[in-house]
Amino acid sequence: MITIAVDAMGGDHAPRPEVEGSVLAAREFGVRILLVGQPNVIRPELAKHAAPNLPIEIVAASDVITMEDHPAQAFRRKKDSSVHVAARLVREAKADGMVSAGNTGAVMTVAKFLLGTLESVDRVALAAPFPNAKGGVSVLLDVGANVDSRPEHLVQFAVMGEVYYRATFGNKRPRVGLLSVGEEEIKGNELTREVYTRLKKSPVHFVGNVEGGDLFSGAVDVIVSDGFVGNIALKICEGLAFQIFGLLKKSINSSLVSQIGGVLSKGAFKALSKTIDYTEYGGAPLLGVRGVCVIGHGRSNANAVKNAIRVAAGLARARMNEKIEQELSAAAVLA
Amino acid sequence: MITIAVDAMGGDHAPRPEVEGSVLAAREFGVRILLVGQPNVIRPELAKHAAPNLPIEIVAASDVITMEDHPAQAFRRKKDSSVHVAARLVREAKADGMVSAGNTGAVMTVAKFLLGTLESVDRVALAAPFPNAKGGVSVLLDVGANVDSRPEHLVQFAVMGEVYYRATFGNKRPRVGLLSVGEEEIKGNELTREVYTRLKKSPVHFVGNVEGGDLFSGAVDVIVSDGFVGNIALKICEGLAFQIFGLLKKSINSSLVSQIGGVLSKGAFKALSKTIDYTEYGGAPLLGVRGVCVIGHGRSNANAVKNAIRVAAGLARARMNEKIEQELSAAAVLA
After folding, report:
1. Which residues of B touch A268 (CB under 8 A)?
2. B128-244, what's its fold?
3. How far apart (Å, rounded) are the C-alpha atoms in residues B191 and A45?
4. What's the gap between Cα B177 and its chain centre?
5. Which of A178, A240, A263, A299 to mutate to test the interface with B (most CBs of B within 10 A)?
């Protein structure tokens, strides 16, 4: 049975969604859960669920990393945080993967240093799934694990993204694109032009450059980018979606006729929200670490936590890291 | 009287919106218009408007640059295009500025080479205005005039963006932010960390790093970025807005009750579309060229063309380029 360590203290509303999501995941996916955090906080929350027969255990961790904590400081000072303990459970093979909806920077730092990186990987990458216009999912990586990437890093991101996509979304030969400012090979900056040349020669199913709008067009499955660009892209999406929904709400409340219309089309809005709801896609995996680490949004609800556990269990089951090592060795031979 | 050369052949629906927008601008803003393009196409369109007394003249240009043309090739081969002729009118001081809704890359190339750059400017920058959550406008530059910028280029972008913002949106002391991956000074890549240090010492009203979501938050008025990142940001916004509207439309048509609701809240949608309608903001000026050049979206309607003419006339009237030269000299003294 796959075991997932869940950071019960991380999210904005912890431990409620973490505990509920864990109960749902244990019930639906047959995974074993280690709920990591302060037992006196987790226990009453767990007691609310009729889950005595589910394989859920509490593992004590005394410290809590907050959203305000500085990642590097939290890593050094809060050595018994729920994130540290979850990472140690993975390192000691007591869990097959970890899930956290906590401070993204802190989770990345802790996971990177406590788990270490895979032998053939120079830099880890955070991968973010986006719903696309074709009803599928496109994954962007790196969305912020590092900046000032070199060409070889982006080639590694391409391979890691491909293996993760295959394991998670069941597509055997995902199409990989390079985020740039035009489709032609000569378009882009120094970095992307060099990466283009290398990806063309690699075993990756590389289909060329894509532009910003292709995050949502469904033209490709995996989109590769430096973490500086990818992080800005991710934040733009969150900001713009928020802005459009806000405007929409304001517009709809602005007159009585529209208000009635708004109530009648509420069902449609709900369907829409669900379509663009990132929580359906299971959080962002940190690729390249020794072990499986999936990071959820701080606003994660129980459904988001459940899906992050599903993704983490799937990556462990698919032996993603072995495949990343194999493919990167193959790519190195061809390079 | 300010004179603006309007490329009548550029946009997707040329010359209809170009001619109508020119008529509206001449009437409302008291500017003189030179409609540049094929007279046999422009004349019948102009005849549709009761505009015999308006200061609108046709200037002949035999070639037309299409959206499919390669910018550098179009520049070299179509020397009598409406874009070339409009740029020459500005160079020869027969017009105070030019407006085009044509092939953005081609307009940038033609303007850069025929007009030349200002003495204190190393690289031109394309500035794109975005509506923000505070009901104002935030401007992002560069959105794609160049990639692989050096620190001094971004400092110049900051100064140019500030002068343009002041002239166009009437804010005497616009707040300038640097697009990065976190607010702290140490966050960012090599380029932005160096730019941060320089902007802090410059006369620009620099308020620090901003993140992707701040394109819409209204936290700052001018956002500075390398053209690679800025272009991807711009394309993401277009793509995501398109995607959300598509989903919304689909959701609303998906059931009868929602359909009725949709019809009733149509007024609200119209108000919303207007709020996020870039055509209200007058197109993207190419900053740093000797002269005024404003580029509209290919989909520009008459309103968008009219507003681009308004912005171009305003920048000419405000003597933007003299101010850019002054501020850059002042910044150079302090650096």
Report:
1. 248, 251-252, 254-255, 258, 261-262
2. Isopropylmalate Dehydrogenase (3.40.718)
3. 47
4. 19
5. A240
Poorest-confidence range of A266-275, B191-200, B224-233? A266-275
CATH of domain A3-121+288-321: 3.40.718.10
Asked whether the beta carbons of residue A213 and residue B236 sit closer than 8 angstroms, the reply is yes
Q: Provide CB contacts within 8 A for B167, sequence distance 6+.
A: B314, B315, B318, B320, B323
User: Count of CB atoms within 10 A of residue B222's CB?
Assistant: 30
Give chain A positions within 8 Å (CB) of B267: 255, 257-258
By the 8 A CB rule, do A127 and A161 touch?
A: yes
How near does any CA of chain A get to the CA of B297, in Å?
Answer: 15
Q: Is the pLDDT of residue B261 over 80?
A: no
Residue B45's closest CA among B329, B240, B302? B302
Tell me, which fold does domain B3-121+288-318 have in CATH? Isopropylmalate Dehydrogenase (3.40.718)
Per-residue pLDDT tens for B62-95? 999 999 999 999 999 999 999 999 999 999 999 9
Q: Do A251 and B269 touch (CB under 8 A)?
A: yes
ipTM: 0.89
Q: What is the mean pLDDT of residues A272-300?
A: 82
**From the CA of B55, how many Å to the nearest CA of chain A?**
39
Preferred mutation among B235, B254, B273 to probe A, highest tally of A CBs within 10 A = B235
**Residue A275 confidence (pLDDT) above 60:** no
Residue whose C-alpha is closest to residue A177's, from A279, A165, A314: A165
CB B252 within 8 A of CB A248: no
Cβ separation of B265 and A254 shorter than 8 Å? no
- Whether A268 has a pLDDT exceeding 60, the answer reads no
pTM: 0.91
